[in-house]
Amino acid sequence: MFKNQPQLGEEFILEKVVTDTDTASYYGSGGIDVFATPAMVSLMENAALQIDKYLEEGYATVGTEICVKHVKATPVGMKVRAKAKLVQIEGQKLLFEVEAFDEEGKIGFGTHRRYVIDKQRFFEKIKR
Predict the structure, then answer these.
(1) What confidence tens digit (pLDDT) does each residue in 4-29 have?
(2) Alpha-carbon distance 37 to 18, whole Å?
(3) What does pTM read for this prediction?
(4) How far is the first Cα of the chain from the last one, in angstroms, to the nearest whole number?
(5) In CATH, what class is 11-127?
(6) Which of 15, 61, 73, 93 has the greatest number of CB atoms lying within 10 Å of its CB?
(7) Are 70 and 107 in contact (CB under 8 A)?
(8) How confident is the model at residue 126 (pLDDT cuts 50, 70, 90)?
């Protein structure tokens, strides 16, 4: 499953600049042109997805749960950053603490769970 064992406390970070396609009005999650909650969730999840670099060929992770609060609006043009910190490994179950920031401070936080899968077995199972 793991080609190299990830370490608890390891952090994975992604950054981007908020564009028109990241806004609540674009996503349909609100009528305002600010960084959408679904876009923040996606950035957090994709930060955690970097854990896949530790997996052997044929394995991947899938998100199974995300519980976050979006606490501050971010305008188009501002840089945002998501951090996913690995805090628990239980066999194939991984737990991350996630946070998101803009240039002025924290905009969101919570937890995210991922599950390690064997891709071939996973796709065979969902075809049934």
Answers:
(1) 999 999 999 999 999 999 999 999 99
(2) 12
(3) 0.95
(4) 24
(5) alpha beta
(6) 61
(7) yes
(8) very high
Alpha carbons within 13 angstroms on the beta-carbon side of residue 120 total 3
For 37-93, write each residue's pLDDT tens digit. 999 999 999 999 999 999 999 999 999 999 999 999 999 999 999 999 999 999 999
List the chain domain ranges. Answer: 11-127
- Segment (H or E) for 100: strand 93-102
Spatial contact of 25 and 38, defined as CB atoms under 8 Å apart:
no
Give the pairing type, strands 93-102 and 105-118: antiparallel
SS3 call for 125: helix
3 state SS of 117? strand
Q: Can you list the alpha helix ranges (DSSP code H) found in 14-105? A: 24-27, 37-48
